[in-house]
Amino acid sequence: MAFAEKRGKGPDGKPRYRGRYKLPNGKWASVSKDEHGQPFTTVRAAREYAQALEVDVRRKTFVNPRDGRITVEEWSVLWLESIDVGPLSEKEYRLRLKNQILPEWGSVAVGDLSPVGIATWEKSLRKRISKNYADGVLSTFRTMMEDAVASRIRGDNPVASRTSGRRGRYRPKERDVKVIATPRQVLLVARNALEMRGPNEHALVLTAAYTGLRIGELAGLHRDEVQLVDRGDGARIGVAKQSQYVDGVFTEIDPKYDSGRGLIIPPFLAELLADLISSRPHSEWVFTAPKGGRLLRGGEWYTETWHPIVNGRPPRGVIRGAKARTGIRPVLGLEGMVPHGLRHSHKVWLDEDGHPRVAVEGRMGHELPGVEGTYSHVTPAMEKAIADSLQARWEASLRPVIDRREYGPMPGSLTPP
Known about the structure:
It is a single chain. The protein is mostly helical. Helix content is 44%, strand content 9%. It contains 14 helices and eight strands. The chain has helices at 43-59, 72-82, 87-105, 115-128, 131-150, 183-197, 199-211, 215-219, 267-278, 299-311, 340-352, 357-364, 370-375, 380-397; strands at 3-9, 15-22, 28-31, 226-227, 236-239, 242-246, 249-253, 261-264. The protein is elongated and about 90 Å long.
């Protein structure tokens, strides 16, 4: 049975006591402070706290106060070794820890973390960094503390979930608004890409929009993974890998969420890809770098290619030996669209055309949850209907538009086109 014993006097001259209690393994342990770090100054306080710990032992909810003395930095090392995630996710976790979490909390004991302290830090964090980045940092911290609770290092998670109640002003839920393109706008972006970078970028934009594939999946697409002749079940693309930088090395990894899949594609896209591949008979890739090597999608591609084909660029004469270049007009209504917006656009098109949810989510590489996912199945007829509707959208996008502007003014120009 738990009991208390005297330890002497503290700096304030008051007596100090510690509680003694039995651990789950039968050994005796001691505790000299409560969960708030306050020392016990009476026999009763020490004994009752120790008795409460013994009750937790019997109920199998016991968390050893000594375990909570491990610091957040020490726990993060153990935690990172235990998780099993993709290389890019692990890299992102490490960066969030290094840049945001550990500078603030690394030296603090896990058991000393408090919800109020973390909420105050979160408030200042959201003033310094973007919403999405802050959400990611808090998500990593929350997950790490969930595992600390599961490992019995502390009894609760001090990092509040997004759905937990919290005092303060009401704020409507912020939505991450995506810029969505119509088929006609995609065609205009593809034409800009053709003018700037040639057939490879032209085909890349259209393939991303009409398949919903991620840029990394397109970069990792081998020519032997495409069947561009319709043998009765439609022309198809197989997704087996995606290309990503891992520790500075260009590597092929499994698709996100292990979402390898085969997609039927509309006839126009099959013809376009067949022409692209035949123009480079010795390349193993469908999409390549300008000189035929492996396609790289780093920061330079976003600034030098993607942003200009969407947002336009001014013309330039010959400077310092560099060739002159033509100007590119921006596509109206797509200001700020990122490459992933093509994937979002593809999903919107399929929803607008009323295709079954199981076929849409399967094409996107998602799984339907629950009973719906168990009993719903994609059929060849569903796939064919998707290809037909995409072909119809493509053909409609080719019709000239004469009643509205589609391009904005040339960047640097003072007058509209």
